[in-house]
Amino acid sequence: MQAFDLHLHTKTFSDCSFIDPEDLIRRAAQLGLQGVALTEHGMRWPDGKFDELRRLADPYGLLLINGQEILASSPRRGMEGEYLIFGLRKSLWGNFSAKELVERVQGEGGIIIAAHPYKLSRGGGNHYYGAGDLIYELDLDALEYYHPGHNDRALAKVRKAMEDLGLPGTGSSDAHKIFEAGSFVTFFEREIRREEDFILEVREGRIGAGKNPVDVLGGKENEKEASGEKV
Q1: With left for phi above 0 and alpha for psi between -120 and 50, is residue 230 left, alpha or beta?
Q2: Which helix (DSSP H) or strand (DSSP E) does residue 143 occupy?
Q3: Nearest-5° Cα angle at 101, 97 to 104
Q4: Helix residue ranges per DSSP H, 58-137
Q5: CATH of the domain spanning 2-217, picked from 3.20.20.140, 3.20.20.70, 3.40.50.720, 3.30.70.2210
Q6: Confidence at 90, pLDDT banded by 50, 70, 90
Q7: Residues with Cβ < 8 Å from 154, sequence gap 6 or more?
Q8: pLDDT of residue 129
Q9: Edge-to-edge, what's the strand order for the sheet holding 169-171?
Q10: Which helix (H) or strand (E) holds 52?
Q11: How far separated are the first and last CA of the chain, in Å rounded?
Q12: Which three-class secondary structure state does DSSP give residue 31?
């Protein structure tokens, strides 16, 4: 079983982050992670720079995944949540509704995960940074389950959506500071050696979510509410 943190930002391409990518590699290795996904806001890493970073990660046995976090919006609804995108070879520039984003990503062979769908906005109530109940209208590949911004109520909502929609759940730190990395992880039943393996396993739903690497790697009983194949 392997543990990955699938949602992190670095200061190289996300102004809101304080994480140096080389420090992240060392920290992930210390935590015993097998992989991390860089999901910068509004873009993916350029291939050349990402290849350099991968070479730095190789001696640690750490697989890096090049993703991006995209904000969707529409004239009718306004903000429609943020989404983690993997498997595309370029950054997604421009404005997309959530439905358009799903169709674009999957049409190009990628996968799309609703990021922190029930993370409350500062206004509280039923206003979310994520997609909220819009996830029920979208053909997503997975939902972000464990996330620092998900309280017990949010977790219950995501769990119900996973059951209703037959979707797997992920765990991610959404780290912007180095000490946050690895606080939540996604575990994989099968070995992930390359990005294509990662895409396939998420798409097939052979993943689960853990609260931290110890849950997955340290022999303790892991919470598996978010595991299981799609139905």
Answers
A1: beta
A2: strand 142-146
A3: 135
A4: 98-107
A5: 3.20.20.140
A6: very high
A7: 118, 119, 120
A8: 78
A9: 169-171, 142-146, 111-114, 78-86, 63-74, 35-41, 2-8, 185-188, 207-210
A10: helix 47-57
A11: 22
A12: coil
- pLDDT digits over 35-48, tens only? 999 999 999 999 99
Amino acid identity of residue 177, one-letter, is K
Rounded distance, CA 173 to CA 84, Å?
Answer: 13
- Residue type for position 86: F
Please compute Rg for the chain using Cα positions. 16
Do 42 and 13 contact (CB within 8 A), yes or no?
A: no
- State the amino acid at position 150 in one-letter form: H
pTM: 0.90
Q: Which of 75, 128, 138, 144 is nearest to 104 (CA)?
A: 138
pLDDT value, residue 211: 81
Q: What is the mean pLDDT of the chain?
A: 91
Percent of the chain residues topping a pLDDT of 70: 88
Nearest-angstrom CA–CA distance, 70 and 111: 13
**Are the CB atoms for 128 and 118 separated by under 8 Å?**
yes
- Measuring CA to CA, how many Å separate 11 from each of 27, 112, 122, 174, 226? 15, 23, 24, 13, 30
Who's near 120: CB < 8 A, 6+ residues apart? 127, 128, 129, 149, 151, 154
The answer, yes or no, to whether residue 217 has pLDDT greater than 70, is no
Q: How far is Cα 184 from Cα 118, in angstroms, rounded to an integer?
A: 16
The 3-state DSSP class for residue 37 equals strand
